[in-house]
């Protein structure tokens, strides 16, 4: 029986106000702003996760995911969880104890791949590239030949450095020449920059919904080729995660629709509507929009006198890494932007902590008014902190780029 001093009996609900989070302009590395239609979809009534109407919704989500990934893979699903859950589902199912996984060293999320592979019982070897640079196909080919990995992983759009990996077909070809399966991190690329899973011969791709898809986290895209799924289904021992065991999830997302777990129904509604928006816009038109608006953002920050972290040939439109001016505290800038402008950007991660700002241009956040706003606000805060920047020149550069 509860005692008289049980804290559960002394909660004063009147001290807990109604939920009123601030209305921020989200221009960081994620989440991005959510389209009003997605928010509306999330307010619709729940049905059961095996309800016939929900099964139809599941089918539609899978069809829309295939369109967005540019794949015909039958095994294409939203994993119940954040992008990290989709990442762990990919690596934890493909990497068996004793397998070797080749991972990159050129960013924060290559390191996370390595950590997950080790937890799955795999042996990790690295293909070297400096932070802020892409992988070179020749280097990958040499590493694959030397180590003969079972799995090769790479990050298509590295959120920590603002670098877009070019030459993806050459990387996958090098891996397949030695019978390695390829896992691609497409968290910051899906729906924002060119991504062609089938044409580029990627075996597994995982992503997050909260970036270029402008959807709240909770149901995260994952696609596997027949070859990858064959490896999953022929494992000698079960994956270490029951929840993310794809051989069990196949029963729910495959033809049987057998109970595995209670799906996050509202999140599935949300990703369905977000993907409908992608299909309505057209995937190639959406890629072009991101490039145009992020190009205007890039012109603005360079116009005010700042430098991009990534060279033009590796620039990632959805995540713009901007060098912090000398003598400026990046954390103070981010805090001032929140305080003065209700505007979110982010500092650097890992090796680039304190050296860059990370400015997203993703999904519904990728709008002309947001681009002008972030350049104006960033310039104002930097000037007030003593940086030598020309905010007016930056805004003019944005306007010129948007008018072209």
TrEMBL record:
One of its GO terms (molecular function) is L-serine-pyruvate transaminase activity. Residues 1-32 are annotated as: Disordered. InterPro entries: Aminotrans_V_dom, PyrdxlP-dep_Trfase, PyrdxlP-dep_Trfase_major, PyrdxlP-dep_Trfase_small, SP_NH2Trfase/AEP_transaminase. Its EC number is 2.6.1.-. CDD domains: AGAT_like. Its cofactor is pyridoxal 5'-phosphate. Residues 47-306 form the Aminotransferase class V domain. GO terms for biological process: glycine biosynthetic process, by transamination of glyoxylate. Keywords: Aminotransferase, Pyridoxal phosphate, Transferase. SUPFAM superfamilies: PLP-dependent transferases. PANTHER family: ALANINE--GLYOXYLATE AMINOTRANSFERASE (PTHR21152:SF40), AMINOTRANSFERASE CLASS V (PTHR21152). Belongs to the class-V pyridoxal-phosphate-dependent aminotransferase family. This is Aminotransferase class V (Serine--pyruvate aminotransferase / alanine--glyoxylate aminotransferase). It comes from Natrialba magadii (strain ATCC 43099 / DSM 3394 / CCM 3739 / CIP 104546 / IAM 13178 / JCM 8861 / NBRC 102185 / NCIMB 2190 / MS3) (Natronobacterium magadii).
């Amino acid at each position: 029986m509860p005692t008289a001093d049980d804290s559960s009996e002394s909660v004063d609900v009147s001290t807990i106000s109604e939920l009123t989070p601030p209305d921020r302009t989200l221009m960081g590395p994620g989440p991005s702003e959510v389209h009003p239609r997605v928010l509306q979809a999330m307010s619709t009534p729940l049905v059961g996760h095996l309800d016939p109407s929900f099964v139809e919704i599941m089918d539609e989500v899978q069809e829309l995911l295939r369109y967005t990934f540019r794949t015909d893979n039958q095994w294409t699903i939203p994993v119940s969880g954040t992008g990290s859950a989709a990442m762990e589902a990919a690596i934890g199912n493909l990497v068996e104890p004793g397998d070797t996984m080749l991972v990159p060293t050129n960013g924060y999320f290559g390191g996370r791949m390595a950590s997950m592979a080790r937890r799955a019982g795999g042996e990790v070897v690295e293909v070297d590239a400096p932070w802020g640079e892409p992988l070179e196909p020749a280097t990958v080919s040499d590493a694959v030949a030397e180590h003969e990995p079972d799995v090769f992983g790479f990050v298509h759009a590295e959120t920590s450095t603002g670098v877009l990996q070019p030459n993806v077909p050459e990387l996958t070809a090098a891996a397949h020449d030695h019978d390695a399966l390829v896992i691609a991190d497409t968290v910051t690329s899906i729906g924002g920059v060119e991504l062609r899973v089938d044409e580029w011969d990627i075996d597994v791709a995982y992503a997050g919904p909260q970036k270029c898809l402008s959807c709240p986290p909770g149901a995260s895209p994952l696609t596997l080729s027949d070859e990858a799924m064959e490896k999953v289904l022929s494992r000698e021992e079960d994956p270490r995660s029951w929840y993310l065991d794809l051989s069990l999830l196949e029963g729910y997302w495959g033809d049987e629709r057998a109970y595995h777990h209670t799906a996050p129904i509202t999140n599935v509604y949300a990703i369905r509507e977000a993907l409908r928006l992608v299909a309505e816009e057209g995937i190639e038109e959406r890629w072009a929009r991101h490039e145009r608006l992020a190009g205007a953002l890039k012109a603005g920050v360079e116009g005010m006198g700042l430098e991009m972290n990534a060279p033009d040939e590796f620039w990632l439109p959805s995540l713009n890494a901007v060098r912090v001016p000398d003598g400026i505290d990046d954390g103070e800038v981010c805090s001032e932007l929140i305080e003065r402008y209700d505007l979110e950007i982010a500092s650097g991660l890992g090796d680039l902590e304190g050296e860059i700002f990370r400015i997203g241009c993703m999904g519904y956040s990728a709008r002309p008014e947001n681009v002008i706003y972030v350049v104006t606000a960033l310039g104002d805060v930097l000037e007030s902190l003593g940086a030598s920047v020309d905010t007016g020149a930056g805004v003019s550069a944005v306007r010129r780029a948007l008018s072209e």
